[in-house]
Amino acid sequence: MDYILDTLGNLVHQSAFFGLTWGNYLMIIVACVFLFLAIKKEYEPLLLVPIAFGMLLVNIYPDIMALPEDTANGVGGLLHYFYVLDEWSILPSLIFLGVGALTDFGPLIANPKSFLLGAAAQFGIYVAYFLAIFMGFNDKAAAAISIIGGADGPTSIFLAGKLGQSKLMGPIAVAAYSYMSLVPIIQPPIMKLLTTKKEREIKMEQLRPVTKLEKILFPIVVTIVVCLLLPSTAPLVGMLMLGNLFRESGVVKQLTETASNALMYIVVILLGTSVGASTSAEAFLNLDTLKIVALGLAAFAFGTAAGVVIGKVMCKLTGGKINPLIGSAGVSAVPMAARVSQKVGSEADPSNFLLMHAMGPNVAGVIGTAVAAGTFMAIFL
Questions:
Q1: CA distance 97 to 77
Q2: What 3-state class would DSSP assign to 354?
Q3: What's the maximum distance between 2 C-alpha atoms anywhere in the chain?
Q4: N-terminal to C-terminal alpha carbon distance within the chain
Q5: 27-51 pLDDT, tens digit each
Q6: If phi over 0 gives left and psi between -120 and 50 gives alpha, with beta otherwise, what is residue 320?
Q7: Is the dihedral of CA 345, 348, 351, 352 positive or negative?
């Protein structure tokens, strides 16, 4: 009888209930909220479900992220090895490969002025950088935090790893992916505040057809130009353009399908769970995390606003041929931001179709965010 009681007692004391802190329980609640938003509200479930579940796992069983040197047998936790792939910038680069294979660059090629809108939306990154310096972060940490303004999770992880900000990578990545998933909530109020109903109703002319030769040459030319100017952008821009070349060349359909489907989804699982698992209570619940969340929101809001404002300027200069709403798509959340432009435009006029026009700034924003990251690396490495 004593043996049975002792065994039951040992089992009870080995349960997670005796090792968790109030912070762990709070993070478990946050994880459940994220799962609700992902499953019930369908806020970017491909991102939020693995992130939330990784958050759930690490706050119930912290050893799942244990370092090899901290374990008795020298073997680290499962999600630690996933996370190493983030730190080595492997998973973010592979995400860009998949994005390139999935994305049609035709709208950007057909309307090169979209590059201006994509560049304008990066304004939030630099605003957030100076705000982060003001709030006490060092140069490298401020640069890593500010890239959240591009609404680009992989680039945020990539830059944090390259600048040696592993301690901040978890909060930065979670903030970036959270704002990416909340694009449909955050952007519309800013867009409506800065535009009139008449501007939102503007119908844009149909884009010109883009030839196959143009689509093939575009990723090659962009890679050569951007990587010659900023070689540090090669892992991101190079993989993005390689994926797009797979798509447009038409001769490697198997590679295109693999990069845009199987490989992409495998990488999303590994990256999402490892990012979520970096949010243990002791690592996440601190003042720096709150600052990062606030700075990320400010960066995202300023980026959206800058894109819309430049869109208004271009609208005036072209005699009302450009709908300012497409400027908000300059943040690099592909294709979510473009869909939001379409949604807000169709609310003003149900017959308005802005999606393809907004994809131009959207794709330009992806390139712009990678260039911003490369600029920071050129300065601080």
A1: 28
A2: coil
A3: 89
A4: 65
A5: 999 999 999 988 998 877 888 899 9
A6: left
A7: negative
Residues 298-325 as b/e (b if ≥16 CB within 10 A, e otherwise) read bbbbbbbbbbbbbbbebbeeeeeebbbb
In 40-146, alpha helices (H): 45-60, 78-87, 90-102, 106-110, 114-120, 123-134, 139-146
- Rounded CA-CA distance 173/273 in Å is 11
Which of 206, 209, 217, 215 has its CA nearest to residue 105? 215
Q: By the 8 A CB rule, do 242 and 44 touch?
A: no
CB 122, CB 369: distance < 8 Å: yes
The dihedral sign for the CA sequence 223, 226, 230, 232: negative
273-287 pLDDT per residue, tens: 998 998 888 888 888
Q: Rounded to an integer, what distance in angstroms lies between the CA atom of residue 188 and that of residue 343?
A: 9
Tokens of 141: 């940490």
Q: What is the pTM of this model?
A: 0.89
Residues 317 and 311: their CA atoms lie apart, in Å, by: 10
Give the position of tokens 């605003």.
127
